[in-house]
Amino acid sequence: MTDVTVTTLAQFGQAEPWLSSLVHVQRGGLLLWVTRGQGVIHMHGHRRGFSANNAIYIPPNHLWSVEFGRQILGQAVTLPPELAASFPPTEQLLRIQDGLSQSELTGLIEDMRREIQQDRPFLDDAVAAQSALLGIWLRRQVESHPQAKKLSAAQRLMRRFCDLAAQNVGSGKSMADLADALNVTPTHLTRVSRQSAGITAADLLVQALAHESRLRLTRSDVSFKTISEDLNFGSPAYFTRFIQQHTGMTPSRLRQAAHKAAKFGVSSPR
């Protein structure tokens, strides 16, 4: 069965808001097509607003988060890393102004959605072909849009920091460690991050770790001790305090609540 999913933005952002509102590493490709409403997105160290007729793409291994407005409408397409290879290698936020391009994108996503729902023979082959067409559509749009200004030194620093941060979630390395690897002071990195991302570099790391911790807690039955060791917490007790601080629940209570929500088809704890 294909690992590609097509959902509405309402479904994508509301069922479990923490999944998208916390800065985290995108493991596969993600395409968001916004047809109504607005919001704010963090894309690999840069915070930007978006509105209707915006196409947003997050490549694998990039840090991101999103805050949707209440009136949001549109669709989200998630792709495994191997299918994301046909998409642009960097994050994109494009305003799609002409009606033909808007209709093309909507049609491509709808074709993919129907294919997945019908679950006919050769589904994986069909979805792979449709993913390639989506990638071609997006690359054409990138080609036709005016090139962005050359990245500033601060923007380049944030991209390098986010590259390192995405590689080191759960490694035990601190913001100061990553600043040292980038040959800058923690103070400078903090200032640049506030200006570009709206939060500090340390907060970016904490959110990514909180997301990964919560994901492992609610999507598996692996012991808390094993999770704390895998993510390089000093001890299971420190892991418990970290989870309580960021969710208001103990690890066991959070896992129980998530499993109960999944069983009865309701939203999990926020």
Find the CATH superfamily of the largest domain. Answer: Regulatory protein AraC
**First-last Cα distance:** 29 Å
Enumerate the strands of the largest sheet in spatial order, edge to edge or round the barrel: 1-8-3-6-9
Main pleated sheet:
5 strands, antiparallel
Structural Rg? 19 Å
Task: Note the beta-strand portion.
Answer: 15-25%
| Low-pLDDT residue intervals, each spanning 5 or more residues | none
Mean pLDDT: 93
Oligomer status: single chain
The beta-strand count equals: 9
> What number of structural domains do the residues give?
2
CATH top level label of the largest domain: Mainly Beta
List the total number of helices: 12
Keywords: DNA-binding, Transcription, Transcription regulation
InterPro entries: Homeodomain-like_sf, HTH-like, HTH_AraC
GO molecular function: DNA-binding transcription factor activity; sequence-specific DNA binding
Protein name: DNA-binding transcriptional regulator AraC
